[in-house]
Structures are given as structure tokens and as C-alpha cells.
Amino acid sequence: MKFHFIPNWLNPKLPFYYGWIILFCVCCAGFARQGPAVATLSIFISPMASEFGWSFTAVSSAVSFGGILAAVSSPFLGLLLDKNGSRTILCISIIITGFTVMLISLTQSLFFFFTLFCIARMNFAGPFDLGIYGAVNNWFIKLRGFATSVTTFIQMTGLMAMPLIAQACIQYDGWRFGWVIIGTTVLFIGFLPNFLLMVRKPEDLDLLPDGDHQSLNGNDENNTNLKNNKIPEPVFTRNEALKTKAFWVLSVYTIFVFPVQAGISLHQAPHLIERGIEPYITATIVATFSLFSALSGMVFGLIVRKITIRFSLFSAALCLAFSSTIMIFISVPWQGYLAAAFFGTGIGGILTILPIAWADFFGRASFGAIRGVALFFQVTAQASGPLMSGVLRDFSGDYYRSLIIFVVFSLSALFISLFAIPPKF
């Protein structure tokens, strides 16, 4: 059944491929997604914890519990994505995220903050991921690496911008004003493009992925050949994918790298401040991490198929290991910038490579269902990282123990990446 919402004014016979409009839509959603990102929350931790006397464990648990909610819901949302496409998931996620983030400005209790941020974080970790990469992978196959790299670049641009916006707002009028502006940014940038322009897949407009041909139903005498010469891609159901070694290699890799990603992202600002780095310098270090994430995402997206997914995953894990090691010994700003550069390079790689890997290994047909199960592992792993860091910090007074664990996790992922080989189809 075709996607039920295609605007009456939409003319698929544009002078360019409609997939580029879809890419614009998901980039807007990806930028907006960063409102409740852990890097954004890290800017708010110190002023909020100072005002209310909260422990870092308490704040971290909101991130973790929101991730657990996303883990539980993602397998079901994946099925919805395969059926209806990205528009519904993204539009609802943007609206809920924008308003819940704005409402955090009214926080007077830990329970109030915990409830609202859990909802926002659930949207970040599950629905946003499914909607963004579901749309990219439906509209692009040969150009998937480029499209995914652009998507990651814009998401990391958002991740760079949101903490800076938050820090500027906090300095201007406090953390409450900061949450209002972050929520407004989410709604303003994300909603309208996806509501008005998002379409489920190219076949709904009688197009082919990548814009190779204008139409499957035109009068071109070669159309019969075009139909019979679609780009070959794997076709796996969810049950078939679960039986492959590749599925579990990617899943185990995910389980090791995402505690590092979320744990360091959330606690990097408090860690740097505790190591004697000034708050305004800390904000620029966080922005540096986001900048390198954006740049490395572009690079990995363009070269991933040339150097193979396996080597790309290996390189990203190696960068995480370097950055986690450097963070243990930070005492001056240049070390913070160096760690941020390695960390950003690794995270940009992971956020770009893994969506490409899942789509390249298992195809478009059941991407939502397969990715939904994969997200169960991803967001559960993400939930463990911040909580682990918060608990160990409150117990020992610093982040040394959690950073040691993150080094071990990164090296374990590096080893697992050696077995990331596409399944036969």
C-alpha cells in the first residue's frame, strides 16, 4: 500500500531528484534531534545540580531510563517505519521533544526533570534514529554513503551548536532560559520540512533510488529494461537477519562502543571543569568534539565502501580508545582539545558507519524491523554509559574508573570489528 500522505501540489517530475529534498528534511530533523543530546545536557548539569543539590548519578539516571524506554519501544516502532515511512515518526518526535525540553525550564523537583527528560531522551534514542536513517536508506543505495555522511555532518553541526546555544543562554539569563531556547530551536528547525515534504520511498512517486531514472511509468522505450535492472541489494527479513553472524557482530560492536559515546558525551563537561578547565573553555572543547564528529562523519561516509566497513569500524574504535586514554590525564586545555578531536572522530565514524552497515548488510525491505532490534542493543548500551560514569564518580569523587572501563570497551570493540563481514544473500 502506498504512503497515504503525498501533497497534491507535489510534482515528482522535478529538474532534480526528489531524494535531495528528503535529505534536506532528515538533516533538519537531525539538527533538531540534538536538543536532548547528552552533550547538550552536559552544559546544564553543573548549574542545575548546584541549584538543587542533585547528585550526578541522579541526572545521569534520567538519560539512562530514557534510553531504556527507547530500547523497549524501538522494535515496535521499526515495524511502523517499514509500513508508513518516516514522516509520522519524525513529526511526532519533534513536537514532543520540543515541548518537553521547553517544559524542563519549569523544573522545581528531580521527579519533574526526570520525567520530562526521559521522554525527550526516549525520542532522541529511538524514533529519531529510526526515522532519519529509515528515510535515507529508502531513498539512497549507491549514494547511501554520501547521503548518510551529509546527515551525520548536519547532526554533528547541531550537536556543536546546541551546547554553545545553551552556554550562551545560561550566561545571559540562567539555565531555565537555556531550556526554553533549546526547545524552541527544536520545533522551529525540525517540524515544517518533515510535515510538508517527507515521502515514504521513491517508488511512491514512481521513482527509483538514487535518482538514476526520472520515472518507472513514463514513455521512455527503455523503461522495461529499467524495471528489470534495479540496483541489486540484499533482502533479509528480521528473522533471517537474526540468524546471521553479521547481525551479532554489529550488535556486539554496538554494545561496546555506545556506553563510551554516551558516558563521555554527558560527563565530559563536568570532568573538564573538575580537572581545572574554565567553563567557557569547556564549552569550546565540547564544540570541538562536535566539529570533529561532523567532519569525520563526512569523511567516513565518502570512503567507507572503499576501505570496507570492517576497517572503518576498526578505525573508529581505535579513536575512542585514544580519546578515553587522554581524558584520564587531562590537566590543561590543549589536552582537552586533543581528546575531543579523537573522540569526535570516533563518534562521527560510528554514527555514520553503523547505519550504512545495517542497510548494506540487510537491505531496505525490512530495515525498520531489523534496525529496531539493533536499536534495542544500542540504546541499552547508551543508557549504561552515563549511569556508570555517574555512579562511579559519586562513589570515588572523579571519573578515573569509568574512563578506564571505557578504554577497555573501546579496545574490545576494536577486536570485534575484525569480524564485520557482510552476510551472503
Describe this structure in words.
- The chain has 425 residues and is mostly helical.
- The chain has one domain (19-211, 238-419): MFS general substrate transporter like domains (Growth Hormone, Chain: A, Up-down Bundle).
- Helices cover 77% and strands 0% of the residues.
- It is built from 15 helices and no strands.
- Helix 4 (86-103) runs antiparallel to helix 6, helix 10 (245-274) packs parallel to helix 14 (367-396) and helix 14 runs antiparallel to helix 15.
- The model is unreliable at 214-229 (pLDDT under 50).
Overview features:
mainly alpha; 77% helix; 425 residues; Growth Hormone, Chain: A
Question: What is the assigned CATH homologous superfamily?
Answer: MFS general substrate transporter like domains
Biggest pleated-sheet summary: none
Count of DSSP H/I helices: 15
CATH architecture: Up-down Bundle
In oligomeric terms, what are we looking at? single chain
In CATH, the topology is named: Growth Hormone, Chain: A
**Estimated share of beta-strand residues:** under 5%
**Coarse shape:** globular
Radius of gyration: 21 Å
Can you give the helix content as a percent range?
A: over 70%
Report the span from N to C terminus. 26 Å
